[in-house]
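Methods — Computational structure assignment.
A single polypeptide chain was analysed. Its primary sequence is given first, followed by the predicted tertiary structure written as structure tokens.
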Amino acid sequence: MGNLADDTTIEATSTAGRYAAAFHPDWEIWGPNGGYVAAVALRAAGAHTDLPRPASLLCHYLGVGKFAPVDIEVTTLRRAKRAESLRVSITQEGQAIAEALVWCIADGLDGLDHDVTAMPQAATKTDPRQLKPITELNPEGAKSPFSFGRNFEQRPIDWMPFEEWESREDLDGTVLTWMRYQPQSTFEDDAFVDAARSVVLLDTYQWPAACNAYRPGTMHYQAPSLDLAVSFHEIDPTSEWLLVDARSPRARDGLVAGQASIWSERGKLLASGGQQMLCRPMRAVPA
């Protein structure tokens, strides 16, 4: 299994604005997971700025990377006292892999202060520590040919056995589950690593939400992510468990829309975002 902080490490080179990193195979889903790639971009922005926390991330996925070193260029587009806009370009062997825009902000800013958010009601009645892990609920189904899944402990809410799920009437296109990173669940020393926890989960679970709008055997497409847009609302590196609330409200004309939010154990909205996915004919999963 992979450690998120270690596997998104950014190293400065001798050229200003240029950084080096490497995609780690522990984050594989056919290639480097898109959220993981965006997390590397976020860490690069954090390495370049002297501001302490991210405010937003917009990442376009331009190519599928290899598990090998990557080159990163970070450019400041605008710098003010309270905020900085950064462009992050990730390439590998001359091929464009991702292009990201990141806003970073100072700590302790004055401004409006309100919270009208509400954690999904089903989650308010659960303690993730009292729920059964997916590996116990569905030992065979929880196995994956990809290393990515070993980086998390998953404890779903309102678990439904496959026989019931297969014949369910409500095809709601949602996912609601508690997740905890393994082997290290929190990263209190770096707000950019803490925010990266949300980035990976926001990117990953919008496609499973879309799949839940269909019955088994009726899915004939995959839908890789074109982009990911994230707003960071609050930093809480002490929350070991993160609630993923993902949904796919609409799919049409080859596009699949996703929306998701990440909540702390204390019911605080940490991050929210959305993405567009592009349909492609289903291909066989590699053995």
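Note: The longest strand covers residues 69-79.
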